[in-house]
Design goal:
The complex is a heterodimer of chains A (416) and B (537).
Chain A lengths: L1 H4 L9 H23 L13 H25 L6 H20 L12 H5 L15 H25 L4 H20 L11 E2 L3 E2 L2 E2 L3 H27 L1 H11 L1 H6 L4 H27 L1 E2 L6 H14 L5 H19 L14 H14 L5 H15 L3 H13 L13 H7 L1
Antiparallel strand pairs in A: 1-4, 2-3
Chain B lengths: L1 H18 L2 H12 L5 H14 L4 H9 L3 E3 L5 E4 L7 E3 L5 E2 L8 E2 L4 H14 L6 H13 L3 H13 L3 H18 L2 H11 L5 H11 L6 H50 L7 H22 L8 H23 L8 H23 L15 E2 L7 E2 H23 L1 H11 L1 H6 L4 H24 L8 H16 L4 H22 L1 H18 L15
Antiparallel strand pairs in B: 1-2, 1-5, 2-3, 3-4, 6-7
Helix pairs in contact in B: 1-2, 2-3, 3-5, 4-5, 6-8, 7-8, 8-9, 9-11, 10-11, 11-15, 11-18, 11-19, 11-20, 12-13, 12-14, 12-18, 12-19, 13-18, 15-16, 15-18, 16-18, 19-20, 20-21
Chain lengths: 416, 537
């Protein structure tokens, strides 16, 4: 067990890593934009304009998944309220974007957003002050989720709330926020949330150029978030976190402060989630309270678990793949897949058509998602990355096996 | 010409009336006078019929109001049937009249002034109606519009009334009428009488009365004393009502959480599909109801609930056993992964139910013995369905406590919880106990679903509504401990309902959630934490 958890720090920042990192960055930040702008739209490899914000959305989800993997995969904190930090960051960005609308709104009020005029607000609530400045919005995107996570984490970790208890109270936190943001008199647009944005730092949010810019910002954000997470997990702190994950009491007895280590990483993770939310909102054009729903937060855990918990890369891959599959299965018409069965005859054709029509139906998404959760946890607990490692290991013997990610391997032994 | 003849006839009838048994003939004379040409005579007749207090006048006045009253060739008053204009009946005798030439019949015309009189008369007459509900409503109506005439009518009606509930309502209306229109003695008596009621309407009435500028000081003092005594009782009733509603919410939470207290509390398994077990129980109630409606005689429908409870228990329990054997047993010791996998199960179960029954809400109706309610202190109603759910919830809890503490299965279950290895060494088949325990928890969730189907709609999302709350109840009360679940659920329910009038429903709920989060910081293992070795498991 101890051997397997050992981290190969020598290779962590070696040229091999930077090569892979740069290659991925090149594909995402240079080649995709080039295929969007530089080539004729009729060419089959061209990336159409409507795809760009969609890709940007997936990248934001990837940052969010990274933030959860940092605390769940490495510190054993399964936050079921990660979506709350994401939504708070999103709301901060949304407030900035609302203030940018100015007199172009339906009611043409230079100060109050439309929903406030509609709800008969006389003046701007105090917490909206400053959001007309981009710098203030950026500060809040970091501060609001960070501060909430700091206070919440301080209360929780200080009194050693851990494991499923922590999961349940984080869920209660996001549920309470969901209820609060649904209220009209909270001053955040209630049920409808914030939408109808016009521009961001002077650029039209709907223009393809701005969208490409936001996409590139998401790529940069993902890269930076990944480097930060990698730095934390490969540092001494990272080792303490993993030790806490596997045997908390033992680490405490060795004299480490579990509270401080967990609090730090929990706050960093919340800030990352907030940044992901802030990048997400201008690309999808809306933020509303449903982002706080407990189901959303659980879905984030699924992305991480599908990709491979405790691997960072896996979390990002899982987020992109699951969401890709989701958009694909819900948006693609069954007709476009019927060609698959066109060469079959008789009852085989009918059965094939029935199967394809059955799979490609929007309402079946829940079945697939559910089966994915069950299948991944039962069959591939180490996710896609774990699976890839295993095949890797089969081909080139001698490579390190993926780190195990059991919830309480040593803790269980200690208590038995 | 015919009209003059008729008026003479009417007068003659009035004269004859003196010589005959008074009531009956006064009645027929007044009815005949309705056919008069003069609006003044018609008005007198209408008011007279109203004061007579004879229920037979109701359909006639109704017909007059609806423009369905006619005079025949001999001045007799005829009623046209509401559904068939050709069908005529004699207003006094009620016998059908046929063979009249259409031009020999003329309409009895009413104006707005008369319509007002008709309504007042009808209102007064309904105090004498043979129908109990109509009388009760009329008596309650009298409280809202007290007047001097209504006092007279109420006195008369009270004399002939036997039903205690209607008598009480009439008495209340009479006091109100006397308060506003009576002599000083009557007013004092009315104030004293009204002081015993616990009714916001009475309080408003007295408030208005006491605020009158030229009120006798003695009367004012009496009225204020009465208001104070009503206020005190209203506050108490309000508190009792809140308590009952809190108890009702708490019992619903308790039912939803008991099953979880077993699977999560005793076995340490986070079953996110627990809510779906509740939902499936509710659908089981729906299916049993439909089967009863389709295949059994209509009289049996009231019994469907008795069948639905065990059916839901067995079905959800079986599903729980399958879930444990097929999925959860592979994940023991990995609580966070169990959470994810069972969340997957919950998505699939919701979708399956949606595919079978469709997304719209299904309606499960209360059996007749669970509809309605009663009013224990006046001012708020205890509904039967909520009361039965409270009782049911405690029965389930008691039965569960018995199973845990008095049966072999319960003993083995506790042994496995406390020390799995040792229990296995002692010859307990732990795998079988695990499956049965999980089945028991799920079965109880199924029964909770039957109870929930009685107070709300049944939809595929039903379980999602309760899952966050039930986890909080278990964590708040202390894991692995039924008493904690009981105290946790009831206190959450009551605190929620007590906060509601102060903070509003949603804000109250948020306050409770935040309070629980803070509470768990103080006591990470809940209200009633297990002590000793088992606490570490």
């Amino acid at each position: 067990m101890a051997d397997a958890t050992q981290i190969d720090t020598r290779g962590a920042w070696g040229p091999g890593f930077w090569l892979k990192f740069a290659a991925t960055g090149l594909v995402l930040a240079v080649i995709v934009p080039a295929l969007n702008r530089g080539v004729s739209p009729n060419w089959f490899i061209a990336v159409p304009d409507y795809i760009v914000p969609l890709l940007g959305k997936y990248l934001c989800y990837a940052i969010l998944a990274l933030s959860l993997d940092l605390i769940w995969g490495y510190a054993g904190i399964l936050s079921l309220g990660q979506g709350a930090f994401f939504a708070l960051g999103g709301y901060c960005m949304g407030m900035y974007l609302m203030r940018q609308i100015g007199t172009r709104g339906v009611y043409q009020n230079p100060v109050l957003p439309d929903f406030m005029v509609f709800l008969q607000y006389k003046e701007l609530p105090w917490f909206w002050y400053g959001f007309d400045h981009f710098a203030w919005a950026l500060l809040m995107i970091v501060l609001v989720p960070g501060l909430l996570a700091f206070v919440f984490g301080w209360l929780a970790f200080r009194s050693r709330v851990s494991g499923v208890y922590l999961s349940i109270i984080t869920q209660a936190m996001t549920y309470a926020l969901l209820l609060a943001f649904f209220r009209n008199d909270m001053g955040f647009g209630g049920n409808n949330g914030l939408t109808d944005y016009k521009d961001i730092i002077g650029w039209d949010v709907h223009s393809p150029g701005t969208r490409l810019g936001l996409y590139i910002a998401s790529v940069v954000g993902l890269g930076a978030a990944y480097l930060l997470c990698r730095y934390i997990t490969r540092s001494k702190l990272g080792r303490v976190l993993m030790a806490l994950r596997d045997a908390e009491s033992r680490v405490r007895f060795l004299g480490y402060s579990a509270t401080n280590a967990k609090l730090l990483v929990f706050t960093v993770s919340a800030v990352l989630a907030g940044i992901a939310g802030a990048l997400y909102v201008p690309q999808v054009g809306i933020i509303n309270p449903s982002e706080f729903s407990p189901g959303n937060s659980i879905e984030i855990a699924i992305w991480v678990s599908v990709g491979g918990r405790g691997t960072l890369v896996g979390a990002a891959i899982g987020a992109v793949l699951v969401n890709l599959a989701k958009s694909w299965l819900t948006a693609v018409q069954p007709e476009s897949w019927l060609f698959l069965v066109s060469w079959l005859h008789g009852s085989a054709h009918d059965a094939g058509e029935w199967l394809i029509r059955g799979i490609f139906r929007a309402e079946n998404w829940q079945f697939i998602l559910g089966a994915l959760f069950i299948g991944m946890t039962l069959l591939f607990p180490q996710g896609i990355v774990g699976l890839a490692h295993r095949f890797h290991w089969l081909r080139w013997r001698g490579r390190a096996a993926p780190p195990p990610v059991d919830d309480k391997p040593i803790a269980a032994e200690e208590q038995a | 010409m015919a009209a003059r003849m008729f008026r003479l006839a009417a007068l003659a009838l009035l004269l004859i009336a003196a010589a005959l048994p008074a009531r009956a003939d006064e009645y027929s004379a007044l009815v005949a006078a309705l056919g008069s040409d003069s609006f003044a005579d018609k008005e007198k007749a209408i008011v007279g019929l109203g004061n007579l207090g004879d229920a037979r006048a109701v359909p006639i006045l109704q017909a007059l109001n609806d423009d369905r009253l006619r005079t025949g060739p001999n001045g007799e008053v005829l009623i046209v049937a509401p559904d068939d204009p050709a069908k005529l009946t004699d207003a006094v005798t009620g016998k059908p009249v046929t063979g009249l030439a259409p031009d020999s019949i003329s309409r009895i015309i009413v104006n707005n002034r008369l319509r007002g009189r008709i309504e007042a008369a009808l209102g007064g007459l309904s105090l004498f109606s043979p129908d109990r509900t109509t009388r009760l409503n009329a008596a309650r109506d009298a409280l809202k519009h007290p007047s001097a005439e209504s006092a007279e009518r109420l006195k008369k009606a009270l004399a002939g009334e036997t039903d205690p509930e209607i008598r009480a309502a009439m008495q209340e209306g009479l006091f109100a009428a006397q308060l506003l229109n009576g002599s000083k003695e009557e007013q004092i008596a009315a104030i004293h009488g009204l002081a015993d009621y616990t009714d916001p309407q009475v309080k408003n009435l007295l408030d208005e009365y006491a605020a009158k500028p030229d009120l006798d000081p003695e009367l004012k003092k009496a009225a204020e004393a009465a208001i104070a005594s009503i206020d005190g009782r209203l506050r108490m009733v309000g508190a009792v009502a809140n308590l009952f509603q809190g108890l009702s919410l708490g019992s619903v939470l308790l039912l939803a959480a008991i099953g979880l207290a077993i699977t999560f509390g005793v076995m340490g398994v986070i079953n996110m599909a627990h809510g779906e077990m509740i939902m499936i129980g509710a659908y089981a109630a729906y299916v049993v109801q439909q089967l009863f409606r389709t295949f059994l005689p209509p009289g049996w429908i009231d019994g469907y609930l008795v069948v639905a409870v065990p059916v839901a228990f067995l079905f959800a329990g079986l599903l729980g056993v399958i879930l444990e054997r097929g999925l959860i047993r592979f994940l023991y010791g990995r609580p966070l992964e169990t959470l994810l996998a069972t969340w997957g199960v919950s998505l699939i179960l919701q979708q399956v139910v949606r595919a079978i029954f469709g997304s719209p809400n299904k309606e499960v109706s209360n059996p007749s013995w669970m509809t309605g309610g009663f009013d224990p202190v006046g001012g708020f109603t205890v509904t039967w369905n909520r009361l039965y759910i409270i009782v049911f919830c405690f029965v389930v809890l008691g039965a569960l406590a018995l199973i845990l503490n008095r049966t072999t299965f319960g003993l083995q279950m506790r042994a496995v919880t406390q020390n799995r290895e040792m229990a296995r060494a002692m010859g307990i088949r732990t795998a079988r106990i695990d499956a049965l325990t999980f089945g028991l928890g799920s079965g109880i969730a199924g029964m909770a679903g039957v109870a929930l189907s009685q107070i709300g709609n049944v939809s595929p999302n039903l379980g999602q509504i309760y899952i966050v709350d039930s986890f909080l109840v278990v964590v708040f009360g202390g894991v692995g401990n039924l008493l904690g679940t009981l105290v946790g659920a009831l206190s959450l329910g009551i605190v929620n309902k007590l906060l509601e009038p102060v903070a509003g429903a949603i804000l109250g709920k948020i306050v409770v959630l935040v309070a629980i989060i803070l509470f768990i910081q103080r006591r990470p293992r809940g209200l009633f934490a297990l002590k000793g070795r088992t606490a570490e498991g």
